[in-house]
Design a protein that fits this description.
- The protein has 616 residues and is an alpha/beta fold.
- It folds into two domains: 186 residues; 313 residues, Glycosidases (TIM Barrel).
- It is 28% helix and 24% strand.
- It has 13 helices and 26 strands.
- The chain has an eight-stranded parallel sheet with strand order 21-19-17-14-13-26-23-22, covered by helices on one side.
- Helix 1 packs across helix 3 and helix 3 packs parallel to helix 5.
- 50% of the residues are buried.
């Protein structure tokens, strides 16, 4: 285990300990927040960023002005309006964290939207939490970077940060009024960095304790990871619950150490359910992983792409495809209709069992996957003579079959998920590019779904009865630039615009590149780790570009995947299967999960090497 890997584990442990420690703190503010005001020059005249509570450079009645920042010839001054908290006396404002700009990554600032920010700890972005307003309190061109705080009129309940003062560095550090000592916070409150480019600005901190942080999903544009945590554990240690649980805990710790804003969970009904109504033996492992990730303020995306015989009602067979009843017979009491009824009910069971997951992907790559010159579909119909077989004896689903099946899966899954968790959102099954670098198969399949909805070929002509958001897998198998990445993804989004859905959330739920260029029976030809890092850097910077012509519609970008496939799983077949490039998409490499240049870059975007960057 190298030093950086040890550091990642220690970072996750420290975050867990900090979260546990905060539970011991009193459930009240140490100080009440009454807004702020700051100074800046304009045309040789000193002006003020006024306090919204008074409309002036002043504090509301009963609040004291405390200077918390400002050093002559370096930083302009800021003042905090505060008072000691009294039980039963409501503060004027709720405090929702701060956002500050920086020159670089020093002191834990993160690259974001083409700049560096001390991001808001609730949204993990430059935006305030839902329901909060942003107010600038500092910022002078060529002198001070911009600094903002988030506030709302006091409201009982909901998301907020229990407030415990502020403290600024300077030629003479400013003590926190809540402790009387500079750079410190009261016991049980975390210290958050909001400002301070080394050699440019002094550092500024605020103290708080998040409350109900899980009410705020990761901000738009956030970066995530995906990994089949529970399927990994079950496959590696069959029949050994203790080792399975230990493996789940280990992988969760790895994930928390990388600090993704979003995490995509494989929620396979083959592991979670024994039938559409009954939780199975591995349901507790999913709950264990989900709760640990949710407690780390990570937004979860759940995905299921499994169709066992108890669900479909038709026999499984060996091969690469799930066997589904043919959709050309879908009247009541047909095998296909019975399957859809069970499918809907299975989603109700899963969604109600895991309320922490608010975003669900319905199936995966249902447009098919072309693996070789013959190819195979994700789905296949039963064999001739079997229950649910196609009337014309076809043994492969047509393109229209795949569209019809996908529409039916979306309609029934969404209805089932909403019955289990009305607050959850459902996402279109992400189409595959079918090994086409242009991503045209994705655009074509999404267009076919919209066209079929509009044509009334299924139960509703309202797209919202099928999905709340759209997702796809933009594998381009090359470096990202304006043409290969931005233009091709924008062309897919243009299809959404064409059907009036340009504003729905979009998750690119698998992106990335394998470290294996090609494989034979025994080994693979590897791509340079630095080249992989550079490709990732270009993908991330283009995806977060502030240019309105880039990808402003992107909700989440999820990297596939956290870890390479463990060798015990990649050779688990009998006879052992040769390695394939898909085994090597992890940013942690090999069986020991060694960091790579790509994981180091990922950490630069998420702050996993700076504990104060995302403090809970």
């Amino acid at each position: 285990m190298n030093k950086r890997f040890k550091w990642m584990w220690r970072a996750a442990l420290a975050a867990s300990m900090a979260a546990s420690a905060s539970a011991w703190a009193a459930d009240e503010d140490a100080y009440d927040f009454g807004g702020m005001y700051g100074l800046y020059p304009e045309g040789g005249v000193v002006k003020y960023y006024n306090n919204p509570a008074t409309g002036a450079a002043s504090c509301p009645t009963g609040y004291d002005a405390r200077q918390v920042f400002g050093t002559g010839n370096v930083d302009w001054s800021m003042f905090l309006c505060t008072r000691p908290h009294l039980a039963g006396r409501a503060p004027l404002y709720d405090f929702g964290g701060m956002v500050g700009l920086a020159n670089g990554s020093g002191n834990g600032a993160l690259p974001w939207r083409g700049y560096y920010y001390f991001v808001n700890p609730f949204t993990h972005t430059h935006e305030c939490p839902t329901g909060y307003q942003s107010q600038q309190v500092l910022g002078t061109p060529s002198v001070d970077h911009n600094l903002y705080y988030c506030y709302r009129p006091h409201t009982e309940g909901g998301l907020r940060m229990d407030f415990a003062g502020m403290t600024g560095d300077g030629a003479t550090p400013y003590p926190n009024p809540a402790t009387g000592v500079a750079h410190t916070c009261p016991g049980g409150y975390g210290r958050y960095t909001a400002f301070g480019t080394p050699s440019v600005d002094y550092t500024f901190y605020y103290c708080g304790k998040p409350r109900n942080a899980n009410l705020q999903p990761a901000g738009k544009g956030s970066l995530g990871l995906g990994e089949p945590i529970v399927p990994n554990a079950v496959a590696r240690f069959p029949g050994n619950p203790a080792q399975q649980q230990a493996e789940v805990d280990r992988e969760v710790l790895l994930a928390k150490g990388l600090r993704p804003r979003v995490f995509r969970m494989w929620m396979l009904n083959t592991h979670i359910l024994t039938d559409e109504n009954t939780l199975g033996p591995y349901a507790y492992l999913h709950q264990r992983a989900i709760q640990a990730l949710a407690d780390a303020n990570i937004t979860l995306v759940g995905m299921d792409n499994s169709f066992p015989a108890w669900l479909t009602g038709v026999p499984e067979r060996s091969g690469q495809s799930w066997v589904l009843p043919c959709p050309d017979q879908r009247s009541a009491n047909t095998p296909y209709a019975e399957f859809l009824a069970r499918y809907e009910r299975s989603w109700t069971t899963i969604a109600s069992a895991y309320p922490q997951i608010k975003l669900w992907q319905i199936a995966n790559e249902t447009n098919g996957v072309r693996m070789d010159e013959k190819g195979f579909d994700v789905f296949a119909p039963p064999l001739e003579g079997q229950r649910g077989a196609c009337q014309n004896r076809r043994l492969r689903f047509t393109d229209q079959d795949r569209v019809d099946i996908t529409m039916d899966l979306m309609f029934h899954a969404r209805r089932g998920i909403k019955a289990g968790n009305p607050d959850a959102l459902t996402f279109m099954p992400p189409p595959s590019p079918m090994d086409d670098k242009t991503l045209a198969p994705i655009a074509n399949f999404i267009g076919s779904l919209y066209a079929n909805i509009a044509a009334g070929n299924r139960p509703s002509t309202n797209a919202r009865d099928y999905f709340d958001g759209v997702s796809w897998h933009p594998y381009i198998f090359q470096d990202a630039n304006q043409q290969t990445w931005v233009d091709r993804n924008n062309a897919i989004h243009d299809v959404l615009e064409q059907y009036g859905d340009g504003s729905v959330p979009v998750i690119l739920s698998e992106a990335g590149n394998s470290s294996a260029i090609s494989c034979n029976a025994n080994s693979c030809v590897d791509r340079s780790p630095t080249e992989l890092r550079d490709w990732m850097q270009h993908t991330l910077s283009l995806s977060q570009s502030p240019d309105p012509a880039a990808m402003p519609w992107l909700t989440y970008l999820i990297w596939f995947r956290m870890s390479d496939v463990h060798s015990s799983l990649s050779t688990a077949h009998s006879p052992p299967s040769p390695p394939i490039p898909e085994f090597y998409y992890g940013i942690l490499k090999g069986d020991s999960n060694q960091p790579s240049p790509s994981s180091t870059l990922f950490c630069q975007y998420t702050g996993c090497h700076a504990l104060e960057a995302i403090p809970f």
